[in-house]
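Translate sequence into structure tokens.
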Amino acid sequence: MVSREEEESVHPLSEEERPKGGSTVRKKYGEDYYRQIGKKGGIALKEKRGNEYYRMIAQRGGEANVNKYGADHFSALGKKGGNTTKARQGPDFYSRIGKLGGIARRQKKRAAL
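Result follows.
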């Protein structure tokens, strides 16, 4: 814990005292440098842990959101999205894609026989 005397003696760093690491690297290598090293890190992590790792953390994030906002929230979002799609594509859109889904399933069954 910081004592009152130490607290009073603390002052904001001047421009000269402030660490310059981030801005120096940015000036030297450019903005794209951070994207490149982030991508390399992501690829390395994927190779190390595999796809299952990403599935697991996505599932945890989804569960956390459901706990935070509730299932009704996501139900309302789905309804809103469905109504927007209906307005853009027309009222018979879901009927058309529903029939296509049924055709695709029947073709898979025929191919398996």
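Note: Residues 83-113 form one domain.
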